[in-house]
Design a protein that fits this description.
phagocytosis, Ubiquitin-like (UB roll), 55% helix
Length: 653
């Protein structure tokens, strides 16, 4: 018969005595159980005793947590929290250095327990510790040279106890004096400070900044970024972690108008480069807490983009309109500008409208209207200008390449950039506060001062490449964006160490590869591997394949109209091709205009027996594609299918 659920079998220890095996009735008051234990060892005044876990935690058993006791737990009979707090409160004020040191060591350990902490705080223990830090340390300053190890340990245990007590959230951070803040800041600013003291001091400063607006202002006056940087250049990862935590806290709590100024200071002090060299690329693994702090810094840095992301373009603002003019100038060259005479005004407007269409804006007449939606607002235009200026060859290639395509197949650079910027902001959660548990930082964003802009430049080229691989039309725009998002997300999950490595990851994630991955993932799902599904698949597969074959033949019989391209890529003629109903002959011929329905066989002049077809070549193996590739070797032809630069200017005029 199993024991009652309320009975727990435990072992209880007492120093100098054999442990007792005992059954605890959880229905009985805890005080009655303690009295029973004390009576067994003939100990008087049971109210001065308590039970605690005998493991490393040493946490006290209370009425609130007693239900956590399991069968086989080892407990210890010890002094009650109130008694312990009273004794330690007296011992840490001892005139004996050794007694004080031992008491502070015990206090640092016991303060982790909220039950003890409450009792010690009730004795105004936190105030006593702050007084010891403010004035007590100076009392022993003269002894520091001859008793440095003792002094360092004493201060370390004092600060550890303070941190543990404050972590329980019982005492408000707003109660501390400027003298205490200055003292803690001095430990951080002083070179050669003991590691444990520095670590606790940084932890205290972080908590002050995060938990009190008034203390943020006071700490910001005492600590500068320049004073924190040297701690990042050391080899202790714990110190580096706490240092970045303090920087993050100052960043997070800074007023909006101060945040950009602080970011500029961080850039001047080369914080990114220092973190990359001494933290991310150091010869050691990054622990979870460091990863979290790097993630927080990454989020806070990207959140600086929120202002531009949520700023609409003012169509009447000439400075903003000049950015669009600059995009046009870089793409189509300033030489093509007409003169400023009044007679050319209409020509100028017409040319601008034509060029804005080539740039892929939705509003060809006034492209400023494309940037009135938030997000991404002006951030999209900032990205486009950065790409045009810093990756000019790629920018010109994308714009001119797409402006030469048939309208429905062009990848609109303007619209793509706006939607891509919005998508990247969503992926990086721009504008959202950092999560308290996430540690998803990306090393590549610490390799460049303009990492978001470079990220965009890589992704806009990916989008153009994917568009071509999908042979997309304007109706497929959202589908392309979904594929690009998947490509970017999959590449990011591999945590590339640099932007170049990210670019290489994307090269291996072509549209074809994405389709393979999707198919593989679908097939690997448990449902698809079950016996009934596999049996059904095997049974209907021949029927499905035959159906696909018939659908393809029917499509060939219906026929298709193609555009004919001459050497200058003009598309003013058509030709039609269809398979005969008996599937033996291909009928084809030229047409003057695009047909509205099927073209009869007898109107197509040329025939090709299917039996005479020896092979079908596609893609780069086609003769006209090989000719196109040869043209690339011609130094006068910068872009495949495009006239040389001089002719291009003539055409634009």
């Amino acid at each position: 018969m199993p024991p009652p659920a309320d009975i727990v079998k435990v072992a209880i220890e007492w120093p100098g005595a054999y442990p007792k095996l005992m059954e605890i009735d959880q229905k009985k008051p805890l005080s009655a159980i303690i009295k029973e234990v004390c009576d067994g060892w003939s100990l008087a005044n049971h109210e001065y005793f308590a039970l605690q876990h005998a493991d490393s935690s040493n946490f006290y058993i209370t009425e609130k947590n007693r239900n956590e006791i399991k069968n086989g737990t080892i407990l210890r009979l010890t002094t009650s929290p109130a008694q312990n707090a009273q004794q330690l409160h007296e011992r840490i004020q001892s005139s004996s250095m050794d007694a004080k040191l031992e008491a502070l060591k015990d206090l640092a350990s016991l303060s982790r327990d909220v039950t003890f902490a409450q009792e010690f705080i009730n004795l105004d223990g936190v105030s006593l510790l702050t007084q010891m830090v403010e004035s007590g340390t100076e009392r022993y300053q003269k002894l520091q040279k001859i008793m440095k190890p003792c002094f360092g340990d004493m201060l370390s245990f004092t600060l550890t106890a303070f941190v543990e007590l404050m972590d329980h959230g019982i005492v408000s951070w707003d109660t501390f004096s400027v003298a205490f803040i200055k003292k803690i800041a001095s430990f951080v600013n002083k070179s050669g400070m003991d590691i444990s003291i520095l670590q606790r001091s940084l932890a205290i400063l972080e908590s002050m900044v995060l938990n009190s607006h008034d203390l943020y202002q006071k700490v910001a006056q005492e600590i500068t970024i320049g004073q924190l940087i040297p701690h990042l250049q050391g080899t202790d990862q714990e110190i580096q972690t706490y240092t970045i935590a303090v920087i993050n806290a100052l960043f997070l709590k800074a007023p909006d108008e101060r945040r950009q100024e602080m970011a500029n200071i961080l850039a001047q002090k080369q914080l990114r480069s220092i973190i990359l060299t001494h933290v991310i690329r150091a010869q050691r693994a990054i622990n979870n807490e460091m990863a979290h702090q790097l993630y927080v810094l990454q989020v806070l840095t990207f959140n600086l983009l929120e202002d531009r992301m949520m700023t609409k373009m003012d169509p009447q603002d000439q400075a903003q309109r000049d950015i669009i003019f600059e995009l046009r100038r870089i793409a189509f060259d300033a030489e093509s500008e007409p003169s400023n005479s009044s007679g050319s005004m209409e020509k100028r407007k017409s040319m601008y409208t034509r060029d804005y269409k080539k740039l892929g804006f939705i509003n060809h007449v006034n492209p400023a209207m494309d940037f009135t939606q938030t997000p991404p607002g002006m951030l999209a235009l900032d990205n486009m200008l950065y790409f045009a200026k810093h990756h000019q060859d790629a920018y010109i290639r994308i714009v001119l390449e797409n402006s030469s395509r048939e309208d429905k197949h062009e990848c609109p650079f303007g619209r793509s950039s706006i939607e891509l910027t919005k998508m990247l902001c969503e992926i990086l959660k721009v504008g959202e506060l950092p999560s308290e548990t996430c540690n998803d930082f990306h090393p590549m964003f610490f390799t460049h001062d303009r990492s978001f802009e470079e990220f965009f430049c890589i992704c806009i080229q990916l989008l153009n490449k994917t568009w071509k691989e999908m042979r997309a039309t304007s109706e497929d725009f959202n589908k392309v964006m979904q594929v690009v998002k998947e490509q970017v997300m999959r590449a990011l999950t591999t945590k590339p160490s640099s932007l170049d490595q990210f670019k290489c990851k994307l090269q291996n994630l072509s549209y074809t590869e994405i389709l393979k991955i999707r198919q593989s993932e679908r097939m690997n799902q448990e449902d698809f591997q079950s016996r009934p599904i596999l049996e059904l698949k095997e049974k209907i597969q021949p029927e499905i394949l035959e159906l696909i074959k018939q659908q393809r033949l029917n499509r060939l019989v219906e026929g298709t109209c193609f555009r004919k391209l001459n050497c200058r890529r003009r598309q003013d003629k058509f030709w039609y091709c269809r398979l005969s109903p008996n599937h033996k002959v291909l009928h084809y011929g030229d047409l003057e205009e695009s047909p509205q329905g099927e073209v009869p066989h007898d109107s197509l002049q040329d025939k090709l027996p299917v039996a005479d077809i020896k092979a079908v070549v596609t893609g780069k193996d086609c003769p006209h594609m090989k000719e196109k590739g040869a043209l690339k070797q011609n130094k006068n032809s910068a872009i495949p299918g495009f006239p040389p630069h001089a002719e291009r200017c003539e055409l634009m005029e």
